[in-house]
Amino acid sequence: MRTWPLSVALLSSCAALPAVHAWAAVGHEIIATIAQIHLPKPVLSLVCDILHPSLNLSDSPKDAAAPPCHLAPISTWADAIRTRPEYRYTAPMHYINSVDDAPPHSCQFPGPNGWMGRPTANILAALGNVTSVLRDYAKGERAVGDAEEALKFLVHWVGEMHQPLHLCGRDKGGNGVRVAWNGRVSNFHHVWDGLLIAQGVRLTPRNYTVPLSGSEGALVERHLRGAIYDPYIRRIMHEGLTDGGRFADESDAWLDCPAPSPDLQSSPSSQWTPRTPVGQALEHTLRALGVDIGLLAAPRLQALLDFNFSAALGLTTPAGTEKRWDDARMCPYAWARDVHALNCDAELPIWPHGLDAPGEHEGEESEVRGWHAVPYDVVEYGDESLMGGVVDVKQRETEEAMGLSEEGEDARTPRHPELLELDSPEYAGKLANRWVVERLLAMGGVRLAGVLTDILADVAGDVQT
Ligand SMILES: *[C@@H]1O[C@H](CO)[C@@H](O)[C@H](O)[C@H]1NC(C)=O
Ligand SMILES: *[C@@H]1O[C@H](CO)[C@@H](O)[C@H](O)[C@H]1NC(C)=O
Ligand SMILES: *[C@@H]1O[C@H](CO)[C@@H](O)[C@H](O)[C@H]1NC(C)=O
Ligand SMILES: *[C@@H]1O[C@H](CO)[C@@H](O)[C@H](O)[C@H]1NC(C)=O
C-alpha cells in the first residue's frame, strides 16, 4: 500500500523534472486507465492479446485478479512515433481545426468555410479509419499487426478528442497564445495539455492516497500501477463515475450517437454560394456563360465546386464532410462537437475572455512554422522560453527568498503583468470547482471503453468460450 509521505516524495521529484512530456502524457494515461477500469474482462484480454501478440497473455493468467496488461503505457505511443518519416502523415491526426473558429465569442465546428486541412488528415477522420481497421480484424480480415497499430492510435486519439483545444481552430489551438501560470510564462495550449491536470493531481485530497474499499476498490484498484495520478483516478471514480457520483446520470448518454442528420445532398440550396475562391470564380464563369441556375443548384455540382478545388490543394475540407465521420454506433464528430462547444461555454468558456483578439498571433505563428505541417503540442515543449510553464512552487519560493527571481525585490509583483494569469481563482479555480477537466477525462475513458467493447465484444466472447 502506498502511503502519503511516499506520494509526496513522488510528487515533488516529478515536479522538479524538466520533462514536460511526462506531464502531457498524464492526461492520456488517466483516460486509458479509466477506460481499462470500464472494459469487460474478456475485452481487456483480447485488447492485451492484440497489443502483445507474442505473449499469449489471456492464455496464461498468472494472477486472476491482475489485468493481463495495461493501456496507459501505450497511450502516448502516437506522440512518440510521429516524427518518424513513416509516421509523419499522422501529425495532423492529433487534432482538427475549423476555419474561422474564434472562441469564446464565436465557436465554429465547422462554420460555413469548413475545416482546415485535407478530409482524411484530422482526428475525426483518423478515428474512423482506425476503428474500421479494428472491425476488419474482428471479422478475421486483418492481421494482428494492423490491429495493434490501429489500437494504439485509437487510445491516443480518443484522449486527444477530449482536450477541447485539440478541436479548436483559434491561434493553433492556443499554442500561439502566451499566458501566465503561477507567474511564469506559458502558452495556453500547454496549460490545458498538462498544467491543469498536474494541478488536479496535486490538489487531490489525501484520503485518496489509500486504496478504495468495497466493490469500488475491487473494480478500480487492480488497474492502478502505483502512478503519481492514482489518487486522482480514485477521486474521479469515487466522486464522479460511481453510483450517485457527479457524472453517474449523464455518463449513460456519453456513448449515444444522434440520429443521422439529412446529408449534404438534401440540404436546401437556395442560399448556397461556393465557399472557395476558385469555386466562386468558376460559378461566375458558368453564370456568365448562361448556365442554367437550376443546374448550379444541383447538389453534385455544388459539391464539386466546394470540394474538389480546396481539397485538391490540400487547404480546406468543406463543411458537411464531417457527416461521413460518424455512424449510428460511433460518432466522433458528434462527441467532439460537444467538447468543442466548451470553448464558448456561456458561463465558463475554456477560452477566457481577456485573451488577445483572435488571430493576433497568426502572423508570428506562420513565420515561425507553417500552419499545417507542424504537430501541435510538440513544438512548444522544445521551446526553452516556455519551459517555465511547469512550476515548481518550492523552487520559486526559494529563488524569491534568495532574491534570485527575475524581479527580485517583491515576490508579490506579478512578473508578467502583460499576460493573463490563468492559475487564478477566476480561471483554474472555477474549472476545478466545476470538475471541467475531470469530466473530460472521465468522458474520454468511458468512450474509449465503449468503442473498444463495441468493436471487440463479439470476438472476445468467442475467445472465452
Ligand atoms: C502462443 O500461442 C500459440 C498458439 O496458441 C503458440 O503457437 C505460441 O507458441 C504461443 N506463444 C508463446 C510465447 O507462448
Ligand atoms: C488508416 O490506418 C492504418 C492503420 O493505422 C494506416 O496504415 C493507414 O495509413 C491509415 N490511413 C489513413 C488514410 O489515415
Ligand atoms: C475523501 O474526502 C472527501 C472530502 O474531502 C469526501 O467527499 C470523499 O467522499 C472522501 N473519499 C473517500 C473515498 O472516502
Ligand atoms: C472530385 O470530383 C470528382 C467528380 O465528381 C469525384 O470523382 C472525386 O471523388 C472528387 N474528389 C474528391 C477528393 O472527392
Automatic annotation (TrEMBL):
Record has Protease as a keyword: no
What superkingdom heads the lineage?
Answer: Eukaryota
Question: Looking at the keywords, is Signal present?
Answer: yes
Similarity comment: Belongs to the nuclease type I family.
What Pfam families does this protein map onto?
A: S1-P1_nuclease
What UniProt keywords apply to this chain's record, in alphabetical order? Disulfide bond, Endonuclease, Glycoprotein, Hydrolase, Metal-binding, Nuclease, Signal
GO molecular-function annotation terms? endonuclease activity; hydrolase activity, acting on ester bonds; metal ion binding; nucleic acid binding
**Any signal peptide, and if so, which residues?**
1-22
Organism expressing this protein natively: Trametes coccinea (strain BRFM310) (Pycnoporus coccineus)
- Which Gene3D superfamilies would you find in this protein's record? P1 Nuclease
Instruction: List, in alphabetical order, the GO biological process terms annotated in this UniProt record.
Output: DNA catabolic process
Protein name, per record: Phospholipase C/P1 nuclease
